[in-house]
Amino acid sequence: DTGVSQDPRHKITKRGQNVTFRCDPISEHNRLYWYRQTLGQGPEFLTYFQNEAQLEKSRLLSDRFSAERPKGSFSTLEIQRTEQGDSAMYLCASSFSLSDQPQHFGDGTRLSIL
Amino acid sequence: SQKIEQNSEALNIQEGKTATLTCNYTNYSPAYLQWYRQDPGRGPVFLLLIRENEKEKRKERLKVTFDTTLKQSLFHITASQPADSATYLCALGPSNTGKLIFGQGTTLQVKP
Q1: How close B53 comes to chain A (CA, Å)?
Q2: CB contact, 8 Å: B42 with chain A?
Q3: Phi–psi pair at A87, nearest 5 degrees
Q4: pLDDT tens across B21-66, in order?
């Protein structure tokens, strides 16, 4: 069973650096989501794709954040000029395109900003 | 604004008892509600989904209820086991997108 895969699992970087995370969804799924989770909180929605189209972005997604899903398969999330407040777990999930489908999550990328 | 509240304090129960977790929401009319389990350092794992026109769903030792009048869902684990110890998240979904809005989670500790 190839579930959702995220890379890297951990990323430590200095403030001001750019970072990029990758997500490989379950291959049959055409929806892909990005969430952010901080300690003691539930995941917060960032953005989602239907195939290669980015259909919704949260107000949490400042202009320093950009997400792509160029061929409708894997996705990347880039954060430019990282800030302390960007430290969090970044989770990717995928699902079939019907709205009430369960989302299958990867184990996330934990980002620590020094 | 939309608000989802789960028991903020950890729930500690004895093995074999039934655990009941609560999810309350305000200023929202979800089309469906999902429950997830999350272990430390891992992503959430889907457990159950219940739609707005369903009152109750069961899966093995798990049961979820959904009361759209009270704006509340209850999640039950019967015959709880230490392996059930984890954080449980409720998530609400709108009808037109797959975006989920999560509660903050409730940590369950089952003692042997």
Answers
A1: 13
A2: yes
A3: -60, 120
A4: 999 998 888 889 999 999 999 999 999 999 989 999 999 999 999 9
